[in-house]
Design brief:
The chain is an alpha+beta fold. It is 38% helix and 25% strand.
């Protein structure tokens, strides 16, 4: 049993409300009695109860007030409240009894006893001899220090949905009756609404805290380049986000069909060998094969569980993956039954994407550091760059979308990508890293990883840019930066919402040949840590084209020292606007080659075309 400590109980207010309840109950039958103001005594009770509940929005304080109120209202010994949670097979019960200054936390299985019956039927129930009723079980009675002689239980309903139960226990004089039931019914709506609203507020606060923690953890991990150090940081950060009594990160070695590297904490060092499993072993093997999170509320009931420590009661195993590429798995174990739920899985899924990027970055870094020859380094850098570029153009109803990257003689840092965010939304990104060679390719990889991580968190466009900017600023050397544009195409509403970070403004060419430049946003990523970014939306009509490009296009230089320039590019786009998105990219590429007479490009050329059909 756990005891929660609370502040003042507001007993004076409760006693006044209870006094009104007793007056109401003393009324003859169900007759409505009027006071001087024209309100019935029950109405006055509800008004006073409303004022009481509105005096706090803190969840635990509100539960305590509600339990004390109903006990006084029907003069009973104790009362409890619990909420339904389909994610786990049991729930904590919050119980208050007369003489207690604190709430007790008990455990109750879902769907059991008279509370389970009332929830299923959606109706209240009075039992003045509960032990003779087949619906009654002693689950709560076994956890308290008094017998249960009689009770009333009723469902709690808010927004048309049953979300929990309220039960009062042991009438202090006589038996519970219909007046007690009606009194509780009158109060239950206010109790339910107040608890539901308080829970919504608590959930909102928790999500804000988790997002802040995820961002803080991402910043902490952004500079990790050594794999072992990165794994330690990841596991320590996981403990901050979720909590565990024993946990580990298991990295997959597909060549050997096993978990090749394991970093763990909380396991007996004498059983180290038991942690090195094949991909077909245990819960972690199941997750590695299926790519899905496994939540086990009681490990004794799951035959996939491999017993490595005696005290483990529950476990969660989650993929460490990004872009559907599985890098490894998290394995977290708790000494408490039912410690993890679907919300835990959501947090681990978001953090798993960040962790996978960090792990992959450390692996790439190790490869680069190990390369001895410049030629080998450039080859690796080129691999980094091309590996992260799209393999094919996306298929979007009502649109023709295509992108192309033509690398220069020396590996640069251009990037473009398509990110399907669901619900008819497609993320569009183009970027150009300062510098050339391996450093530029690494910065590009880091930028892309940060961008995808923040997009998965579903922030606004401006927030995504601000968070990516901070992460990049903290992970690159002074003077390094990235120009770029990130936008989201809503193919249902035909709108592109974007923010431009110091990049060449994409050209929106209308069907009437008018032009709009996508130039609103902020400075390049990585220069000013506290920079703010503006987002704008542009509607697309039939036949409109949006042309994204890097400066390798307009700064292509011929033998006379002249640049291709924006004017030539715009005139070309007007001539070829009726071509497909892919052909527009190819024609612009050919125009650059013809303008430079086939000379080696000094900079990468990257283009992305969005055309509404």
């Amino acid at each position: 049993m756990v005891v929660l400590n609370y502040g003042p109980t507001k007993r004076e207010q409760l006693e006044e409300v209870a006094k009104e309840v007793r007056k109401t109950k003393a009324a003859k039958g169900t007759e409505v009695l009027k006071n001087g103001s024209g309100h019935s005594r029950l109405e006055k009770l509800l008004l006073q109860a409303s004022r009481l509940f509105n005096s706090t929005v803190e969840y635990e304080d509100l539960i305590l007030l509600a339990l004390q109120l109903v006990c006084d209202a029907v003069t009973c010994q104790a009362a409890f409240i619990y909420r339904i949670d389909s994610h786990i097979d049991h729930r904590r019960v919050r119980l208050w009894a007369r003489g207690d200054s604190d709430i007790r936390l008990l455990r109750k299985e879902h769907g059991s006893g008279v509370a389970g019956w009332a929830l299923e039927k959606g109706t209240p129930l009075i039992l003045n001899d509960p032990r003779s009723d087949p619906r009654y079980n002693s689950e709560i009675a076994d956890q308290v220090d008094f017998n249960i002689e009689n009770l009333i239980v009723l469902p709690l309903i808010s927004r048309g949905k049953v979300f929990g139960a309220l039960e009062v226990i042991n009438k202090q004089a006589g038996e519970f009756n219909e007046i007690d039931r009606d009194t509780l019914l009158g109060l239950s709506d206010q109790i339910a609404i107040s608890i539901d609203n308080s829970q919504l507020l608590r959930e909102a606060r928790r999500r804000v805290q988790e997002m802040e923690k995820l961002f803080e953890v991402g910043s902490k991990l952004s500079g990790a380049l050594d794999l072992e150090n990165a794994l330690k940081l990841i596991l320590d950060s996981t403990r901050e986000l979720v909590g565990f009594d024993a946990g580990g990160i298991f990295l997959i070695d597909t060549a050997k069909n096993e978990f090749g590297s394991v970093y763990h904490h909380g396991y007996d060092s004498k059983r180290e060998s038991d942690l090195h499993l094949k991909l077909d072993s245990g819960l972690i093997g199941w997750v590695a094969r299926n790519g899905e999170t496994a939540i086990v509320t009681d490990v004794t009931t799951d035959d996939r569980y491999v017993a490595v420590r005696e005290n483990t009661c529950s476990e969660i195993v989650a993929p460490v993956a990004v872009d559907d590429q599985l890098v490894g798995v998290f394995n977290l174990e708790s000494n408490e039954v039912g410690a993890y739920d679907l919300h835990t899985a959501d947090v681990l899924r978001a953090f798993g994407a960040q962790a996978a990027m960090v792990i992959e970055r450390t692996r790439l870094h190790k490869k680069i550091v190990g390369a001895q020859a410049l030629e080998k380094q450039l080859e690796i850098a080129h691999l980094i760059q091309t590996e992260f570029l799209p393999d094919e153009d996306p298929q979007i109803d009502g649109y023709d979308v295509s992108g192309i990257n033509i690398p220069s003689g020396e590996v640069g840092g251009d990037y473009f990508g398509f990110i399907d965010t669901g619900n008819g939304q497609m993320g569009l990104a183009i970027a150009d890293v300062s510098g050339k060679g391996v450093p530029a390719a690494l910065i590009m990889a880091s930028f892309r990883a940060s961008l995808i991580a923040e997009i998965r968190n579903q922030f606004t466009i401006s927030s995504i840019c601000e968070k990516v900017n901070k992460l990049l600023h903290d992970s690159v050397e002074p003077g390094d930066y990235v120009t770029g544009v990130y936008g989201s195409l809503n193919s249902l509403d035909h709108v592109i919402t974007y923010s431009n970070a110091g990049h060449n403004p994409p050209i929106t060419l209308r069907s009437d040949d008018s032009v709009t430049l996508l130039d609103k946003g902020g400075p390049p990523f990585g220069i000013i840590r506290s920079a703010e970014f503006e987002e704008r939306s542009v509607s697309l009509g039939s036949g409109d084209i949006v042309f994204f490009y890097t400066d390798g296009v307009t700064e292509a230089e011929n033998s006379a020292g002249a640049y291709l320039g924006e004017e030539r590019l715009l005139e070309l786009l007007k001539r070829i606007r009726h071509e497909s998105a892919r052909r527009i990219c190819e024609i612009v590429r050919d125009e650059v080659n013809q303008f430079t007479h086939g000379e080696t490009l000094l900079d990468d050329i990257t283009m992305l075309v969005v055309k509404r059909l």
